[in-house]
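REQUEST ID: PR-0412
SUBMITTED BY: lab tech R.K.
PRIORITY: routine
TASK: structure prediction, single protein chain
INPUT:
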Amino acid sequence: MTPALILGAGSLLHQVARDLATAMDRQLAPLGVTAQQAALLLHASRQQYSPSQLMSLLGTDTAGMTKLADRLEAKHLIERHPNPQDRRSVLITLTPDGQALVPRLAPVFGRVTRQLFTGFSPSEVSALTTTLERMRGNLATTATIPPN
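STATUS: complete
OUTPUT:
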């Protein structure tokens, strides 16, 4: 595989990820949340999570998680409560406003995802999913990128 082919594919993958995030954010804007905020609300609607648990689910770091939670708390969509099993941590729960918003979020993710895969066969989506999972695995097992 040539370096140009690898770089071109990596660049295209990055562009698709960025375009997908932009499409999600545009569709969610009328609801007053970003894609990442919506994802947090969807996860928190299923069970109580600590911020550190949500960080890994959302792919963010400590600072990003704090900002995300602060913004959702300011919008009165979540609350942070002491964790009864661990006084050093908190759990995130949805407020009534957050609970009311959740049913409107999943259809947006579905709509944008259907648009993304328009014209793809189920076998193509399956093959792409397998490929993307392999890519994630490759990155997860690579501690450092070796020099040329």
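NOTES: The helical segments are 3-28, 35-46, 51-58, 62-74, 96-116, 122-141.
REVIEWED BY: pending
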